[in-house]
Amino acid sequence: MKRILVLGAGTGGVVTARELSKNSGNEEGINLLEIIVFEKEEKSLYSPSLPWLMVGSRKPNQIYENIRKLDAPGLKVIKGEIEKIDPENISVTVNGEVYKGDYMVVSLGVEQVYEQPLAAYGHNFFTVKGATKFNENLEKFDGGKIAILISSLPFKSPAAPYEAAMLIDDFIARSGLSSKTEISLFTPEGGPMEFAGKELSDELKGLLEQKGIKYYPNHQFISVSENTLVFSNGEKYEFDLLAYTPKQQSPVAIQNSALAGESGWVNVDRNTMETAFPDVYAIGDITDVPLEIGVSLPKIGFFAKQQGAVVAHNIGRKIAGKDPDKSFNGEGQFFIEYGKGKASATEGNFYTSPTPEVKMKTPEHLSHWSKWWSEKYWFFKNF
Ligand SMILES: Cc1cc2nc3c(=O)[nH]c(=O)nc-3n(C[C@H](O)[C@H](O)[C@H](O)COP(=O)(O)OP(=O)(O)OC[C@H]3O[C@@H](n4cnc5c(N)ncnc54)[C@H](O)[C@@H]3O)c2cc1C
């Protein structure tokens, strides 16, 4: 019986495990494949809903599920921190025990680095705890300055801070506090979502302008004290409420393994997602896929899902003695909430040459409902 090790029960890991399980022929009492998922957390988080949590449109327990719910015939979840990854021997060490497999799919995402003093003055909205705390403070807010800070590059979900800013603006407008509130977004980027070209970047900037959100690109954060942000260009900004993205890096287990490329992230074949080690795949945020325009493929869940489905399918083919016949082609889509029950759909092909052919639609109700549906479908399908 073949054994497949799936590292991580986040977006990519869940899709991979579910797809493998669905087509495995496993039933109660008949196990043709063994799928083992390793996860350090009790809960699998659906991150696209974090901005909704920030503005009170979701409760924490609506945006995650217990990993035990993934268990199925031939599919089991082992809770524990992956301590060591040995891609040459297709094995991992978890809770001191070594598990060897025939195939391995690595979907460990990014590791968030806990940073003081940022955590003392603001809320890391890339976590359930931080987004919840931000919401508690927003509910009590009665006017003043709200800052959204992209503290360092790279960061996953390149649209999330912009989406958060627009949803916060919507909340403030509904609370009747617009006239006494200033919302500002600071980032080291030259512009939003630059990987998708200048036109799209300008369109997103235009949406911020429409809402009166102040935008400060090329602002590299260096320190915070007494509710004041300090940037490398010497500028300072005093705030009353702060939401920030944390420093993000490749997980230590990857950095200490032979899978880490020069950047620390994992290099893969951009179509099959296979690493330099045969039968070892990496998908989602942990990978580094350079694009022709000189930046890397953005770290978004849509890609992790697509890549997981491709890899699961191709592993199934290999096990059946057939050639892999699916590939990830760079097509992607995500929604940016605008407020007023509208969202912008951003979609296209990120692999086109010489630049990605990606378009952003004007905010509309349909796209908001598409995002809403994606969340519902995620939990319905997988848990
Ligand atoms: C605020 C926010 C909004 C977003 N909005 C969108 C959106 O609208 N659309 C979209 O497409 N994407 C969105 N994303 C991005 C999306 O969530 C990620 O790209 C996606 O989750 C990546 O999937 P992954 O499987 O690579 O990593 P993850 O989903 O992060 O999963 C990695 C898993 O590995 C586990 N893990 C890590 N290290 C270890 C270890 N050593 N041992 C055991 N387990 C370990 C982690 O606990 C985690 O469960 C958003 C992200 C954020 C933060």
Tell me about this structure:
- The chain has two domains: 2-110 and 250-328, FAD/NAD(P)-binding domain, CATH 3.50.50; 113-248, FAD/NAD(P)-binding domain (3-Layer(bba) Sandwich), CATH 3.50.50.60.
- The strands form eight sheets. Strands 5-2-1-9-21 form a five-stranded parallel beta sheet, with helices on one face. A five-stranded parallel beta sheet has the order 11-18-12-13-14.
- The chain contains nine helices and 25 strands.
- It is of the alpha/beta class and 383 residues long.
- 27% of the residues lie in helices and 29% in strands.
- Helix 1 (11-22) packs parallel to helix 8 (301-319) and helix 5 (160-174) runs parallel beside helix 6.
- The two termini are 25 Å apart.
- The protein has helices spanning 11-22, 50-54, 118-121, 128-140, 160-174, 198-211, 252-255, 301-319, 365-382; strands spanning 2-7, 33-39, 43-45, 64-66, 75-79, 82-86, 91-94, 97-100, 103-106, 111-113, 123-124, 144-150, 181-186, 214-216, 221-225, 228-231, 236-238, 241-245, 247-249, 266-267, 280-282, 287-288, 331-339, 342-349, 357-360.
- Residues 8-13, 38-41, 44, 47-48, 50-51, 81-82, 107-109, 126, 156-157, 160, 251, 253, 284-286, 299-302, 304, 334-335 line the site of flavin-adenine dinucleotide (FAD).
- Residues 3-289 form the FAD/NAD(P)-binding domain.
- This is FAD-dependent oxidoreductase.
- Pfam families: Pyr_redox_2 (PF07992).
- It comes from Pontibacter anaerobius.
Which secondary structure elements does this structure contain, and how are they paired or packed?
Elements: E1 2-7, H1 11-22, E2 33-39, E3 43-45, H2 50-54, E4 64-66, E5 75-79, E6 82-86, E7 91-94, E8 97-100, E9 103-106, E10 111-113, H3 118-121, E11 123-124, H4 128-140, E12 144-150, H5 160-174, E13 181-186, H6 198-211, E14 214-216, E15 221-225, E16 228-231, E17 236-238, E18 241-245, E19 247-249, H7 252-255, E20 266-267, E21 280-282, E22 287-288, H8 301-319, E23 331-339, E24 342-349, E25 357-360, H9 365-382
Parallel strand pairs: 1-2, 1-9, 2-5, 9-21, 11-18, 12-13, 12-18, 13-14, 20-22
Antiparallel strand pairs: 3-4, 6-7, 7-8, 10-19, 15-16, 16-17, 23-24, 24-25
Helix pairs in contact: 1-8, 5-6
The structure holds flavin-adenine dinucleotide.
Flavin-adenine dinucleotide binds next to helix 1, strand 2, helix 2, helix 8 and strand 23.
